[in-house]
Amino acid sequence: MNRIDQRFATLKEQGRTALIPYITAGDPAPEHTVGFMHALVEAGADVIELGMPFSDPMADGPVIQKACERALKHHVRLSHIFDMVSEFRRRDSETPVVLMGYLNPMERMGLHDFAEQAAGSGVDGVLVVDMPPEEADEVAPLFKEYHLQSIFLVAPTTSESRAATICAHGEGYLYYVSLKGVTGAATLDVSEVDRHLEPLRRLTSLPLCVGFGIRDGDTAAAVAQVADGVIVGSALVSRIADNCERPERATEELKALLSEMRHALDA
Amino acid sequence: MTKFSDLTRLPDARGHFGPYGGRFVSETLSFALEELEKTYLSLRDDPDFQAEFDRDLAQYVGRPSPLYHAERWSRQLGGAQIWLKREDLNHTGAHKVNNTIGQALLAKKGGKPRVIAETGAGQHGVASATVAARLGLKCDVYMGAEDVERQKLNVYRMHLLGANVIPVESGSRTLKDAMNEALRDWVTNVDDTFYIIGTVAGPHPYPMLVRDFNAVVGREARRQSLEQIGRLPDTLIACVGGGSNALGLFYPFVEDDEVRMIGVEAGGDGVETGRHAAPLSANAPRGVLHGNRTYLMSDEGGQVLETHSISAGLDYPGVGPEHALWKDVGRVEYVAANDSAVLEAFRELTHIEGIMPALESAHALAHAKVLAPTMRPDQHIVVNLSGRGDKDILTVAKIDGVEF
Ligand SMILES: Cc1ncc(COP(=O)(O)O)c(C=O)c1O
């Protein structure tokens, strides 16, 4: 069984909510990423989303845009990201890793090479932000061949017929974008999220994870009442941004924030 | 039926032009794009909508724009006759307004109280601010901070028209970054906002509808050629940034196999230097940006490259997906004109014909200057004079060392 399915099966048995942190690979510098990943696992991460930096991250707010810029200053490439995941796997063979990013770098590398090397390094799933299922004809069979799960987004604006298509293509978990906006936006309305998750439950048995707007223990706990998992990105990335010159401090702050959320979820 | 008839039936139902185009957007926008497509397809063949569009083009934009025989310049170049399609005479000074009139009508039909736009040279921003003023819509225009600097006059024009210009400081601070920011705004405010994209790029259905709204240029030019020249022209030339003025001129001629078409990209310091904005001429790799697959200037890691051009309106690393296909099937030839040749053409047309072209349009003129002398005096070239040069006076003055 894929690590992602395995993990969600275990969580379900335990009646716990998945905690899914996002960081951008190579931010603030490539040598820190693997350490951050281990720290996130120690603090309670169930799945790690690792961002593949892109020059034009259209769906991201300023916090993750800047993270991409910091990583790209170091010329972080997909091949480096695969090295990071391989290194992570030497000490952690259980925590699922999902790569998240935009299509262009993947296409430029070659989709086949991407799938082969991602799988070879120990990646479990891929979320391509600017590739809805309608455009996934070329990618989907390759991911299948290499046992990479295709994670898709669902938004508040997604119609029911689109949701059905997405659920039919999605694997691992569904990433519900909790609000209209880019990553790092502020407000989140839990009852509104619940209203949208409700019909999805009828369409799919995939775990429903909610991202965008979750930034601390309170927001995590609130969302956990209606979702199978919570995803936190910008709040973590801004801890890294605040401590670019002090990676130990960044590690401590990442752990502190994630532990706070873990405790809030498990309380 | 001709060799290229199939091209007139694109895009397909999913917005693809062969391997190009499509709808590569994050999920939040999918619904808005589906809605826009539905609205547009229902109105495209609606006689009332077309009549309203045509009336606006006639009475507000001032169409048809003339086809002008640049006799003196043709004589000086000593070859083919050069005809200028005078989009510079449109209200607001460029072809961009054809499209903004059309999209503003769509915004109105959709009941959206707010429009946003991205702009490079500021022409599309001005055209958007203009139609927004006329329809009483709130208008925010995203513009790269570098372009805000080099197109100050247009920035102030937009302010006067009541639009809010938002300088974009991220990335290369030019057109592509303005488009990123406009897309982010749209994702956030999709309920009450219509995004007026300024060129034949972006996710489906934008490349199609921007083309259709600009095709009035080619329909007129075709008719005027038959009337004034007595036959179709031998060659069409237009500059290509995203490619809307070029597609507008070319599209109605696509099945006229005998008409040669040339798109002129921004050669910057020269395609061989890497400092340019000419993805087609440079054979850039295939890539995905701003919702469509096309030729895209990116490095080996797939990061989008910074572009270089004297003209803000052409300073874009990609190109409309329909152009990408037309290059592959050989319907259109794509070449580049360097900054220095562009400036020379700008000055020459101003001196000899008393017409000051936009620096974007001067790319097309620069190539006409190369091509005309290789042709006979009984042959005819139609050049799309996509805009007027008033907005570029400060840029040229700066090159001349003149300060105000
Ligand atoms: C006068 C003029 N011509 C051409 C362009 C380039 O756009 P496109 O290639 O879409 O025609 C611009 C863009 O700002 C423009 O202002």
TrEMBL record, chain A:
Catalytic activity, EC: 4.2.1.20
PROSITE patterns: TRP_SYNTHASE_ALPHA (PS00167)
Keyword Lyase: yes
Active site: E49, D60
Record keywords, A-Z: Amino-acid biosynthesis, Aromatic amino acid biosynthesis, Lyase, Tryptophan biosynthesis
Transferase as UniProt keyword: no
Pathway listed: Amino-acid biosynthesis; L-tryptophan biosynthesis; L-tryptophan from chorismate: step 5/5
GO cellular component: cytosol
GO MF term list: tryptophan synthase activity
Chemical reaction(s) catalysed: (1S,2R)-1-C-(indol-3-yl)glycerol 3-phosphate + L-serine = D-glyceraldehyde 3-phosphate + L-tryptophan + H2O
Broadest EC class assigned to this enzyme: lyase
Domain of life: Bacteria
Family: Belongs to the TrpA family.
Classification via PANTHER family: TRYPTOPHAN SYNTHASE ALPHA CHAIN, CHLOROPLASTIC, TRYPTOPHAN SYNTHASE, ALPHA CHAIN
UniProt-listed HAMAP family: Trp_synth_alpha
Protein role: The alpha subunit is responsible for the aldol cleavage of indoleglycerol phosphate to indole and glyceraldehyde 3-phosphate.
Subunit structure: Tetramer of two alpha and two beta chains.
NCBIfam families in UniProt: trpA (TIGR00262)
Protein name: Tryptophan synthase alpha chain
Gene field: trpA
Automatic annotation (TrEMBL), chain B:
Keyword set, alphabetical order: Amino-acid biosynthesis, Aromatic amino acid biosynthesis, Lyase, Pyridoxal phosphate, Tryptophan biosynthesis
Positions where N6-(pyridoxal phosphate)lysine occurs in the chain: K96
Residues annotated as domain Tryptophan synthase beta chain-like PALP: 62-387
Gene3D superfamilies per UniProt: 3.40.50.1100
SUPFAM superfamilies noted in UniProt: Tryptophan synthase beta subunit-like PLP-dependent enzymes
Pathway(s) it belongs to: Amino-acid biosynthesis; L-tryptophan biosynthesis; L-tryptophan from chorismate: step 5/5
Xref: Pfam families: PALP
Top-level class of the enzyme under EC nomenclature: lyase
Reaction catalyzed: (1S,2R)-1-C-(indol-3-yl)glycerol 3-phosphate + L-serine = D-glyceraldehyde 3-phosphate + L-tryptophan + H2O
GO cellular component annotations of the record: cytoplasm
Family: Belongs to the TrpB family.
Name this protein carries in UniProt: Tryptophan synthase beta chain
Organism the protein comes from: Modicisalibacter ilicicola DSM 19980
Lineage, uppermost ranks: Bacteria, Pseudomonadati, Pseudomonadota, Gammaproteobacteria, Oceanospirillales
